[in-house]
Amino acid sequence: DRYKQFSQLRNLYTYMIAHPGKKLLFMGSEWGQFLEWKYDHGLEWVDLNDEMNSKMQHFTKTLNELYRTEKALWELEGSYDTIEIIDADNDADTVLSFIRRGKTKKDFVIVVLNLTPVERKNFAVGVPYKGTYQEILNTEMKEFGGTWVKPNAIKEAITVPFKDYDYQIQTIVPALGALLIKPAEINTRVKSSSKRKNVKAEK
């Protein structure tokens, strides 16, 4: 199933880009070359005549540009403060979520990875502040080889606790897809009186 192969590849690359640490792709990997690289052969450039490979190359380019512009994905990568787990225990839905942080309170990116071929509707994601959040990457957009023609709308946080967070947003997570979400308008001055805020206190 080539569709699922490329969906999972986009998921994998998003996880790599969003995870702390240096990034490395071997040549040809950016478009999902079918054959493994051989030292005595050139790259399989002919693959780019295939729509799925061509869209995969476009996705990788978009992901690299996003990494360059979103400082939260690299600014503090040498510190434990760069990553904050939202939910790593969701074995029922097999969805992993975490936050990558930059130097300022407003500079962070929420990462949501769906590792199963089942779309998750009204999926709750814990967020640190009240306000609105916007999707900056959806790996299942049609331009990348997926089936979505428009992204999720901007989401407003609601005051419903989720794990260590006092607020949450609810969104649709595509099957075998990943979302990158960042704050649109938030109030970082709102403090919680709960113990959850103490656990996630800003440095």
* Main sheet overview: 6 strands, antiparallel
Q: Fraction of residues in helices? A: 10-25%
Beta-strand percentage range: 25-35%
> What is the element string, with H for helices and E for strands?
HHEEEEEEEEH
Total number of helical segments?
3
Mean pLDDT: 91
Low-pLDDT segments: 197-203
With strands numbered from the N-terminus, the spatial order across the biggest sheet is 1-2-3-8-5-6
- From the N-terminal CA to the C-terminal CA, the straight-line distance is 46 Å
Q: What is the 3D shape?
A: globular
Derived structural class: alpha+beta
The beta-strand count equals 8
As a whole number of angstroms, the C-alpha radius of gyration is 18 Å
Please outline what is shown here.
By secondary structure, the protein is an alpha+beta fold.
Notes on the protein architecture:
The chain has helices at 2-18, 51-69, 195-199; strands at residues 83-87, 95-101, 108-114, 120-127, 131-138, 155-156, 167-173, 178-186. The strands form 2 sheets. It has a 6-stranded antiparallel beta sheet, covered by helices on one side. A two-stranded antiparallel ribbon has the order 4-7. Mean pLDDT is 91; it is low at 197-203. The protein has 3 helices and 8 strands, in the order ααββββββββα. The chain has 203 residues and is of the alpha+beta class. It starts with a helix and ends with a helix. The longest helix is centred in the N-terminal third of the chain and has 19 residues, at 51-69. It is globular.
